[in-house]
Amino acid sequence: MTLERLNPGPRMSQAVRIGDIAFLAGQVPSDLTGDITAQTREVLDKVDAVMAELGGGKADIASVQVWLSDMADFPGMNAVWDAWVDPANPPARATCGVALARPGMRVEMIVVARAPV
């Protein structure tokens, strides 16, 4: 079974594919000044971009871990998520409240997906 790294850097890779399973690095917003809806949109756009680079899309996502810096943001994140998710192919999902890496960061998402080879 082959292991491929997508956009490897000195600290991490954007994704790692093992066979036809991909593990995406935590996707975080670049603009930390936005509210939860803006940050969630940006993160989901990044998920879409990485999935496209892997040759897949939303329907290929198996599971998502959503990390929120404040669980009060849960409804705002869900509003954006609900507009984004493929209702015919919703992934398994878990959401938790955590201290995120940088001040102002409100959301991070980690994805496991099928990545067609």
Automatic annotation (TrEMBL):
CDD domains linked: YjgF_YER057c_UK114_like_2 (cd06150)
Highest taxon above the source species: Bacteria
- Which ranges of the sequence are coiled-coil? none
What the entry lists under Pfam families is as follows:
Ribonuc_L-PSP (PF01042)
InterPro entries given in the database record? RutC-like_sf (IPR035959), YjgF/YER057c/UK114 (IPR006175), YoaB-like (IPR035709)
Q: What is this protein called?
A: Enamine deaminase RidA, house cleaning of reactive enamine intermediates, YjgF/YER057c/UK114 family
Q: What are the top taxonomic ranks of the organism?
A: Bacteria, Pseudomonadati, Pseudomonadota, Alphaproteobacteria, Rhodobacterales
